[in-house]
User: What shape does this take?
Amino acid sequence: MQNKISLTHPVFKFISEAAEESGFDTYAVGGFVRDQLLQRDCKDIDFVCVGSGIELAEKAAKKIDPRLNVTVFKNFGTAHFKWNDLDLEFVGARKESYQRDSRKPIVEEGTLQDDQNRRDFTINALAVSLNKNTYGQLIDPFSGVEDLGNKIIRTPLDPDITFSDDPLRMMRAIRFATQLDFVIEKETFESIKRNCERIKIISQERITDELNKIILAKIPSIGFILLEESGLLKIIFPEMQNLKGVENYEGKGHKDNFYHTLQVLDNLTKTSRDLWLRWAAILHDIAKPPTKKFVPGHGWTFHGHEVLGSKWVPSIFRRMKLPMGPEMKFVQKMVFLHLRPIALTKEEITDSALRRLLFEAGDDIENLLMLCEADITTKNREKVKRYLTKFEVVREKLKEVEEKDQLRNFQPPVTGELIMETFGIKPSREIGVIKEEIKEAIIEGKIKNDFNEAFGMMLELGAKLGLKPISE
Ligand code: ATP
Ligand code: MG
Assistant: This one.
């Protein structure tokens, strides 16, 4: 790994000049330097100066383009502006200490070294000089470059101090280990185990941000296994912790649903980058523990886990401070429907079963199929192949049925208004009955998804219910 960083982007020259004029020693620090050395793309750059970060930001922005808009956070002594696709953040070097039961730090001005001391990991405590005489030189007081080379996450100071000062760093350690595929150094990890209870003082939003970054990584299971081993999982996500373990009875065990869920999640990352579909994978079997039963002569069953699991989704989302709108509804629907395509591969596929699934899944049918394919976790390659082929058949058949009947975004061919108008009635139970029966008839293939057939059926149903069209 090199110890010089090439600062080719013009932004560095401007900031270097602004620093020189203000008389503040200035450095690019943190994630940008780390990502530069790892040759990862990085659009967020943090600058630390020994002096006023706000003054530096204002000076630099003026030089780059006087029209740039600098946002100042006076209370924090930070300033921020965007330039093209770059996000630039400026802060004066700080010394920080925390009180035991609060995350509110007492902040004082400090040196670059003080500022590096308060960073979370050695690989995040690197600085690169923007000062004239040492331009481009790396300042690496904790051998962060070596840790980058060895793929190690380690705190710069005693980990008990670093984690106790800001317990979110425990989540960050696991998040970086997952994103970068690094190992958390032993002492650092032992300290996370010792301090895991401290995560309780952190706001749910910050915890969930880190969790989502873990979920969006290429191999999210790395993070969940570390969360479990560290003791954090049982605090931040007890339902998931409860998936772990295998029970044996009469010599029969069931699969460990924690590792199964992680494998589904890892499988899914190969076909989808969608955070919410990944959440659906995490939650698809979440209600297996309370629905588990041993049926003599048969084995373990988890009847109704998809129904109960989907019922849990809103409260889990609420607690996790995840969005309660369409994203939550989507996850709920995926959990609820996750067994349906599998059922279709097991039995003779009828058009009405396909229509029913299309009707219920709507536009999310492709996501549902991806989830189900990811749900195949048998180690037997032949079986995997066989199941995947069956899903291909289901996919083909769904396509045929959809082309014929257009049920994906089902709109009732006769509306409640039309029923009321035709029979001259007010809103009533009968309208619901008629609509439901027409929908069922379409799904069962008794009538086509078409206005004329539905209208005819409406008249028949009306007659049975003692209703007469008013125009006759
Ligand atoms: P990413 O942008 O991918 O999330 P990052 O390392 O840039 O990764 P940021 O949250 O942007 O993370 O923070 C920038 C830098 O600020 C970090 O590299 C680290 O030096 C420091 N930092 C951020 N959060 C903390 C924290 N909780 N404790 C200590 N240092 C932190
Ligand atoms: Mg960053």
Summary: The mean pLDDT is 92.
